[in-house]
Design goal:
Structural class: mainly beta
Shape: globular
Helix content: under 10%
Low-confidence stretches: 1-8, 113-120
CATH topology of one domain: SH3 type barrels
CATH class of one domain: Mainly Beta
Distance between the termini: 33 Å
Radius of gyration: 18 Å
Number of helices: 1
Strand content: 25-35%
CATH superfamily of one domain: SspB-like
Strand order of the largest sheet: 2-1-6-7
Number of strands: 9
Mean pLDDT: 81
CATH architecture of one domain: Roll
Order of helices and strands: HEEEEEEEEE
Length: 129
């Protein structure tokens, strides 16, 4: 059986985010302990934080290959947040949700989970005629 590098299975979250964005307001769960995340200090106390994004709550949102840059207000105080794609744990809209499976490396940093390789080449599906 061939060993697979984790990088082979890295998920490009930008097109997934763009699809959800077109559905309307979305809830994005962020791991605030991930490197490069920029949020107000009081939010760093929690590991996972949900943010609502969409045309109305976050009209100046920018998403690119690095992550999401968005201006938000927290208790009336503006803050420009940055969420690298590695920090995005879940994206949810009223009709759909995707959860990205990650594992911690013991330091609080999230690492992509190693893919589980099939133990046998035989499928669990059966042809019924």
């Amino acid at each position: 059986m061939r060993e697979c590098a984790v990088e082979e299975y890295a998920v490009n979250k930008l097109p997934i985010f763009e699809w959800f964005w077109l559905q309307g307001d979305i809830l994005v769960t962020i791991n605030t302990k991930a490197p490069e995340v920029d949020v107000p200090a009081f939010l760093r106390e929690k590991e996972l934080v949900d943010f609502i994004m969409g045309e109305n709550p976050t009209p100046r949102l920018q998403a690119d290959e690095r992550g999401i840059l968005v201006g938000m207000k927290f208790s009336g105080a503006p803050h420009t947040c940055f969420f690298p794609w590695d920090s995005v744990e879940r994206i949810k809209c009223p009709t759909s949700m995707i959860q990205f499976h990650t594992e911690t490396d013991g330091t609080g940093k999230k690492q992509p989970a190693k893919p589980e390789l099939a133990k046998s080449k035989r499928s669990n599906l059966r042809l019924v005629k």
